[in-house]
Amino acid sequence: MRIAVYPGSFDPIHNGHLDIIHRCRPIFDALVVAVLRNDEKQPLFSVRERLEMIGELLDPYDECRVESFSGLLVDFVREADAGVVVRGLRAVSDFEYEVQMALMNRRLNDRVETVFMAAKEEYSYVSSRLVKEVFFLGGDLEGLVPHPVLTRLGAKRRRSRQ
Ligand code: PNS
User: Fold this and answer.
1) pLDDT digit string (tens) for 86-128?
2) 160 labelled catalytic
3) pLDDT of 5-59, one tens digit each?
4) Is the Cβ–Cβ distance between 14 and 88 less than 8 Å?
5) What is the CB neighbour count within 10 angstroms for residue 151?
6) Could you give the C-alpha distances from 139 to 112, 129, 146, 162, in angstroms and in order?
7) Each residue of 119-128: b (16+ CB within 10 Å) or e?
8) CATH code for 3-161?
9) From the candidates 41, 48, 129, 157, which is the catalytic residue?
10) How far is the CA of 140 from the centre of ligand 1 (A)?
11) Residue 103 beta carbon below 6 angstroms from any ligand 1 atom
């Protein structure tokens, strides 16, 4: 079984992330989307909300599941019986940070390989950070985030207006 882990904050998951997930499906036998539990960050969506949204999106795909993790990614990868970490690369600006993480992870466990996938051009400028900025400034996110996220963003907007 070739099992891969696709880790991230996913706050929120956007269509660039989903594209990477879809392109992983024919390559690996199983894919675990791993949501980092980070107590330091003030997230827009709680980990529970993120797991729910990603769970809804992965529901049609038997070989994909979502879990949360804390601590070292390589430990989570080992516990998931996986050997590969998947990360998306959007632009050269992602490269330095991503390679640092890949090298550190290899140093921590040299049986874990990192595989980079180039983001689809149409999503190469999309990040969770910009999605949040556009949301807080009232912009339209249709086409950039999947429906479970759009629905919850709409609910958050309505609640904030009450
Ligand atoms: O989507 P993000 O926020 O860029 O994802 C970053 C993530 C979750 C992949 C990274 O922060 C991570 O792997 N954190 C776990 C902590 C860890 O293992 N650190 C040491 C190796 S860099």
Assistant:
1) 999 998 889 999 999 999 999 999 999 999 999 999 999 999 9
2) no
3) 999 999 999 999 999 999 999 999 999 999 999 877 799 999 999 999 999 999 9
4) no
5) 13
6) 40, 14, 15, 19
7) bbeebeebbb
8) 3.40.50.620
9) 41
10) 29
11) no
